[in-house]
Amino acid sequence: MIYTDELYYEKSVTTENTFPNNIETDNLILKGPVHNNWSLGDFHQFQTDDCGDDMAEYNLFVNPPTLAYTKNKMYDYMAEKWNKMEEMYYVIEEKDTRENYPHKYIGLIGLNCEWDLKSGEIVIWLHRKVWGNEYFAEATEALFEVTFNHPIDYGIELISVVPSSNNKKSIKATKKFMSKLNGDLDGVIRNYFIFDGIGIQDCHRYSITEKEFNDRFS
Fold it and tell me: Which of 8, 21, 66, 183 is 20–30 Å from 152 (CA)?
């Protein structure tokens, strides 16, 4: 591993939890599914605090205006997708306690699965107070490792990361860690996503195959 020295995850697979419940790196614990680890109220407070607009600007969800929006558009959505094996969302916990930080978790990361295409796509939200620690890279590499090299063989052969072309910070971070992990930029896809807060956006698509990831030390 490049962004963590050790990686631990439970390798058993059940109908309720097809992906590991806990994935541990040097600095982070990814806990899934979201609805089993983060209460609706605490999740809503996280999404509506002072960083809500930062996280929502280039994501598919807006900073929720009401608790009902959080429940119906976000919380229930992620639970349903986990249960259908379509999108696997994890909350991200920092192992070391952070002073003056009001939440239990520092963000979310998800893997959207396109099983017919044998591919997946990473999505992530991180609280602004933890930006600059390469947690995006650390959590993403962990999901790459679990998905590509799990003993069960999920059958996923390619994973992409697709930030908005206007999200310069995310593009810079993605370019850096994908290069280190042996992935690359596929190109700019025009009119790729509709973001609730800003409308239709072009996106930069970076991707990595199982072989490329496992050859990263070659």
Answer: 183
Read off the tokens for 45: 């407070």
Averaged over successive runs of 10 residues, the pLDDT of the chain (218 residues) comes to 96 92 97 96 88 67 86 94 96 91 92 98 91 96 98 97 92 97 97 80 96 94
Task: Retrieve residue 190's tokens.
Answer: 């025009």
Q: Which residues in 56-76 are b (16+ Cβ under 10 Å) and which e?
A: bbbbebbbbeeeebbeeebbe
| CA–CA gap between residue 208 and residue 186 (Å, rounded) | 10
CATH of the domain at 125: 3.40.630.30
Q: Which residues of 101-117 are buried (b: 16+ CB within 10 A; e: fewer)?
A: eebebbbbbbbbbeeee
- The span from the CA of 113 to the CA of 81, in Å, is 10
H or E segment to which residue 46 belongs: helix 40-48
The whole model's pTM is what? 0.94
Q: Is residue 192 part of a domain?
A: no
Rounded to whole angstroms, the Cα distance separating 95 from 4 reads 13
DSSP-assigned letter for residue 152: T
pLDDT for 199 equals 82
Contact status, residue 90 vs residue 30, Cβ threshold 8 Å: yes
Which H/E stretch holds residue 119? strand 119-126
159 is a domain residue: no
Containing structural domain, residue 23: 8-154
